[in-house]
Amino acid sequence: MSVEHRSLIHHYRSKVMVGPPIMSASDIRPDRDYAELHRKKASHQGLAAHQQLRQFAGVGVNEDFLGEIAQLTSLTHLDLRWPMRVTDLSPLTSLTNLEVLHLETASGIEDLSPLTRLPKLKVLTVENAPKVRSLDWVRPLKDQLRVFGYEGTINKDQIVESLEPLEGFAMEAFFCTSLSNQSKSIAVLESCPNLKLFDGAVLAPWKAYRALEEKRPDILCQWFNPNAWYVGWRDGPSAEERAAAAADRS
Question: Residues 5-15, buried b or exposed e (16+ Cβ, 10 A)?
């Protein structure tokens, strides 16, 4: 992986840096606009009083905790971390200033469409949403998102039916770690005019990556390099293609 590639990953993989973690809303300092709260029973109660918060990370978020978060209408960055015990994201639509949202575990969510009603959202990553296999819900964010990630976990792939709903997206980076693409097609990414970084799991056969690189050599993707593939990978590059790529780089 090139230095440029690593640099882009670092640039677009923005994390909400809000530590050190605290265990109770009552411990949030009024002079700080960031906090990371690990819920223990009802320790989140009173969070809504901290209207100074701009960046927030919540661990162990349940419906009541989410209701408190939804009252922090000045938030620009929000990270909902594992474990998250929420089935309805509609309370988040009150966060009209939110620009960055990470859902680290969305295993109980069946409808992600409320996220499309966040008017300033620019960065969205969703991890482990097994009940949402279609990306149709994200279409309204076509001209809004700068970074989009739809990912699984170390132990479980996130399955999607197709990447076709991403046609023409204005995103600059697409993250797909532990993603399984049932359509085995990535051609739609040709239509994303601003795409610079395509990073994550193998979503299609080698020939599809080679075709994408020919159409969009401006995109950085580790799988454009045939020697990044494991030897013997089904539908991977041939030995001749590996040798030719190695010769080009020597």
Answer: eeebbeebebe
Residue linked to tokens 């959202």: 121
User: Buried b / exposed e across 212-228, counting CB within 10 Å, b at 16+?
Assistant: beeebeebbbbbbbbeb
Apex 227 CA angle, 226 and 228, nearest 5: 90
CA-to-CA distance for 205 and 188, rounded, in angstroms? Answer: 15
User: pLDDT digits over 87-134, tens only?
Assistant: 999 999 999 999 999 999 899 999 999 999 999 999 999 999 999 999
Rg (CA), the chain: 20
> pLDDT tens digits for 39-87?
999 999 999 999 999 999 999 999 999 999 999 999 999 999 999 999 9
H-helix or E-strand spanning residue 196: none
CA torsion, points 60, 63, 69, 73, in degrees to nearest 10? 150
> Dihedral through CA 75, CA 177, CA 20, CA 97, nearest 10?
0
Sequence length of the chain is 250
> In sequence order, which residues have a C-beta less than 8 Å from that of residue 80 and are 6 or more positions away?
57, 58, 61, 86, 101, 102, 103, 104, 105
pTM as predicted: 0.96
Report whether 202 contacts 176 (CB < 8 A).
no
